[in-house]
Amino acid sequence: MTYMSWGALLALGLFCGMPARAADGAAAQAHDRGRYLVVIGGCNDCHTPGYPEAGGTLPEKQWLVGSPVGFQGPWGVTYPSNLRLSVQKMTEAQWIAHARTAMRPPMPSPSLIAMSDRDLKAIYRYIRKLGGSGVPAPGYVPPGQAVSTPYIEFVPKNLPPVIAGAGS
User: Fold this and answer.
1) Of all helices (H) and strands (E), which one includes residue 151?
2) What are residue 142's phi and psi, to 5 degrees?
């Protein structure tokens, strides 16, 4: 082989390797963004048992496994789902559609609905990379039905009387 042939071969090898490195970098960037959004979005506050009490210091391997502690209000009792199990069963498109659907309180649906597709994809990819772990959270309990799990009463108390015409 001539000097030019080796140079061309080397250049071709470097060029062909670039997309893989760029893709790896983009995947790492999406993972980091997804992790960041999970943290600042407060996902762990409900979906990771003990996270708030530990001041956010629980290891990632414990994150987003759902909770057996429900939230009771006029809507019934809802439980923070095990996102690590549910996301494993969804495609990215299904996750985005799910995130764009209003959910029962106290899930901050308006916040999720307002997120960009890019942000929702980053969260999805982050959770997928964590892998499935844990058990499913208890199912929704309609209003008036008995609840046998621990729950937090999510109903405001001592509200001021409504003033006629306020906010109009």
Assistant:
1) strand 151-153
2) -65, 160
Per-residue confidence band for 164, with pLDDT thresholds at 50, 70 and 90 = low
Cα-based torsion angle of the residue sequence 96, 97, 103, 107 in order, rounded to the nearest 10 degrees: 0
Is a pLDDT exceeding 90 seen at residue 12? no
Average per-residue pLDDT for the chain: 87
Q: What are 133's two structure tokens?
A: 């772990």
- Residues 100-118 have pLDDT tens digits of 999 999 999 999 999 999 9
Find the length of the chain: 168
Sign of the four-CA dihedral 88, 90, 93, 94: negative
> Coil, helix or strand for 45?
helix
What's the helix, strand, coil split of the chain in %, to 5? 50, 5, 45
Q: What is the pLDDT of residue 10?
A: 35
Q: Which helix (H) or strand (E) holds 30?
A: helix 3-40
